Amino acid sequence: MVREATAYFPCGGLTVLMDSWYACAGLLNAIQAAGWTYLATVRANRLVVLAGSKRKVSVRSLAKSRQGWRTVRAGQKRRYRVRRLRAWLPQVGDVLVFVWAHGREVRGFVTNDLGLSDAVMVRLYG
What we know:
Elements: H1 2-5, E1 15-18, H2 25-33, E2 37-42, E3 47-50, E4 56-58, H3 59-62, E5 69-73, E6 79-89, E7 93-102, E8 105-111, H4 118-125
Parallel strand pairs: 1-2
Antiparallel strand pairs: 2-8, 3-4, 3-6, 5-6, 6-7, 7-8
């Protein structure tokens, strides 16, 4: 699918959004090889290795920390708490992991755009 899409979309400048069902290493690596950016939801039990650590942690456990959260507005009435961490994703490589909290809902996201801001992430996926 990615190979066929490269004929229609130029290299660079494209961001692929996807649900956790599609966020496998093969597809994420193919998107990166095409020169595109991805922003994918990940399941709460997805394991990542935080920068500066050798220990694997789940996205769910990252949501339990009280440090590093920012509030991002997505309109007048919607606000999200977002935590942004650099990590290594097994079989994929360096990524940014975003943990997003809205009420009791917690979601995890990964992107290969290491400069992506909290506000842009919320606008893209919100």
